[in-house]
Amino acid sequence: MHNIFSTYKRVKPRILLVEDDASARIPYQMLLMDWGYEPILAMGRGAALQEDARLKAQEKRCSLALIDLRLIDNDDDTDVSGLNLALDLKQDFPIIPIILSGYESVQVYRTLQNYPGIPFIGKQDRRSDFQKKLDDVSAAVCASKREIEFVQTDILDEFMQSDLAKEMGEYPDQIVNVLVRMFPKAKTLRFERLVAPDTTVSSATRPNSIVLKVYEDDLEACVVKMARAAKIQKEAENFRKFISRKLTGGFNPQQLGKEELAWDIGGIAYTYEGGKNAITFTNYYKERGLTLIKGAMSSFFLESWKRYYTPPTEEPNTSLHNLYKKIWGEEWFEKCSKEISNQTLERTRETLQHYNLPQPVEWLANKIAQTHPEFSPVNTLPITVIHGDLHGDNLLVDNKNIVWVIDFERCGWGYTLQDFIELETDILSRLQGHDVTPLLFYKMCLTLFKQSQISEIEEAELPKDEQIAKAAQSISALRGIAVKCTKNANIREYLMGLLFNMIFKAALSHKEDPQKSERPLIIAGFLCHRLDHWGEPWPPAEWNLS
User: Fold this and answer.
1) Which strand ranges, in their side-by-side order, compose the sheet holding 38-41?
2) What is the pTM of this model?
3) Are residues 157 and 257 in the same domain?
């Protein structure tokens, strides 16, 4: 794995050659190869040539395109079909088109002057001038044509082994090239983990994204996220719309430059807001006491994010499920249902039957199919701008006790309590890493689900087991903060959201280890029973959990 990332710095730029004169293609191909490029030749004539150019550009993940000005009729002074193709490629694809023409006329120059974003190279230029112009354009988008040094690339070497990098097949050099585009003037880029290296986190290197600190030359660090191009584009849009210059307290990040998108991956950079040795809330929760945990949660919700909770906003003609679909995607539940195997569902059957609990995936599917009133767009629900993905690995705490978040892809209007519910789900899930007696764990859950309105939990009701008590007390504090922020104490909506999160969590856990999805499914079963028997004594006496 050593220096995997740096090897891709030497990958030759793939340049699409679109030349209507078939006899000229091979000479240009040889010339480009001599200059350190990998030429991709579009074949055919007329419309067929242009269609092949589009297909080849996408198939080979080209960074550049060298396009003859006249692709239809060399004798037609008005033929600018190559320019039209260049404009189309630039609009549709992450590619830099360059016009190539041997025709020197006032009309040609006037036409090209109207498109300053399209570079021009004359066929009559000396080879040295031709090469220099081409290399200058290439240096802006391709690492191998740039004088740039990459330092401390260990974390990127790991990322080159990720699922996303593997999905790029022959073209993981896009990762290197995106970084070059993000820092067009850099001579040196140095990389560090965003969180302390001695912590066990999933936010430093993830299967399909990476978040890290980047030092450009002698400048201070910035935070860079790299992920699939579509996800980075969505994150950038959400950040500008919902986050930029809107947060309060000690955390108010700004985007640096513009997001850069390649074919399969993109990158976005933010100002670094934290101090040293930032750790995820996941590890902060593990290592710190209850007072500090409460302080961190209060800092985020009551300071950084507080402006979003007032004044309250209401969404008419909706349902809680519809609000979740806006953040998680229209088919989130269908995808979760497919992800959880029948074998896993079968392994939960004995526990579910012991307590006479419904199978939660079936329960929710039936409610949706029956258009139950709670799942029909007939309700009015409170909404606000939410983070949308507030688990413990997206919430960071530094040595100054500044609490900040990363990953704005799911930011947007959503149910006011959704972030609180997700963080509660995460706290409950972290107990799976400890040797916790299932019976004590389920007793704690029943206590959490017993409330008639959202509030902090009475001390006498909290369990005595150290780890379970810590989770229950943290959740108690979180619920108190939730009511203080949102003025919404509707526990039924809260528990319904918790049910959604548990099924979502079960599907995510299933990818890593099917056994880890069993406990979230059982918790979801308890939630289904609670919602089905609303207003009845809870927990039922026949469960005898003493």
Assistant:
1) 38-41, 14-18, 64-68, 96-101, 120-122
2) 0.89
3) yes
